[in-house]
Design goal:
The chain is α/β, with parallel strands linked by helices and 192 residues long. Helix content is 41%, strand content 18%. The strands form three sheets. It has a five-stranded mixed beta sheet. It has a two-stranded antiparallel sheet with strand order 1-8. A two-stranded antiparallel ribbon has the order 2-3. It is globular.
Length: 192
């Protein structure tokens, strides 16, 4: 029995953090959307209040600070999530009209309260990766607007300055070229 459990865990690790479709497929599907479809499907991200790993309060007003906010859902256990952090950090610093906002999904206890030890793990991961963008701790406010309902991570949403989700989410980790292309597409959609 222990061998089967070990085999299952190994297979789970080899498949990433549950990503069911390569990011390229999601990106191609997203690129196929017309501006008209994006406008019809535009929906508000939702009102929230959450704390960063450093204890700063962030609300949906953060979206007004950039033309596009890349909202990246990640976990401390997720290798693909962590591997794309340096690129996201670089893009956050480099692109003037784009900001990155992380949401770390596994830093709370069973009652939804921040777990201090797990928050420290997440801080260490962010620091080691060189990612200087804010990362929110999943809380009830974020869960109420659906941020706890994604089946796979990393999952990334794109939000315009008015707080509307632009296009479909990207599932799976991406390299720098894919991030640049996806962000350029979402900026174009947001401008229409």
């Amino acid at each position: 029995m222990k061998k089967w459990i070990a085999l299952f865990l190994c297979l789970l690790l080899l498949t990433g953090c549950g990503a069911n479709a390569p990011a390229e497929e999601v990106q191609e599907e997203s690129a196929a959307q017309t501006a008209e479809e994006v406008q019809e499907n535009a929906n508000a991200f939702g009102a929230f209040s959450a704390e960063t790993l450093d204890g700063q309060t962030v609300t949906e007003a953060v979206f007004a600070e950039a033309d596009l906010t890349v909202v990246n859902l990640w976990g401390t256990f997720c290798g693909p999530c962590i591997s794309e952090m340096p690129t996201l950090g670089m893009l956050h610093e480099e692109l003037e009209n784009v900001q990155v906002l992380g949401i770390v999904l596994d830093c709370t206890d069973q009652h939804g309260n921040p777990d201090a030890d797990q928050v420290e793990v997440a801080k260490d991961i962010m620091e080691t990766s060189g990612a200087a963008y804010p990362s929110l701790v999943l809380n009830q406010s974020l869960a109420m607007i659906g941020m706890a309902n994604f089946q796979y991570i990393p999952t990334t949403l794109f939000v315009d300055s008015d707080g509307n989700v632009v296009g479909s989410e990207a599932v799976g980790a991406m390299d720098e070229a894919m991030w640049r292309e996806t962000i350029a597409q979402r900026l174009e959609m947001a401008a229409q």
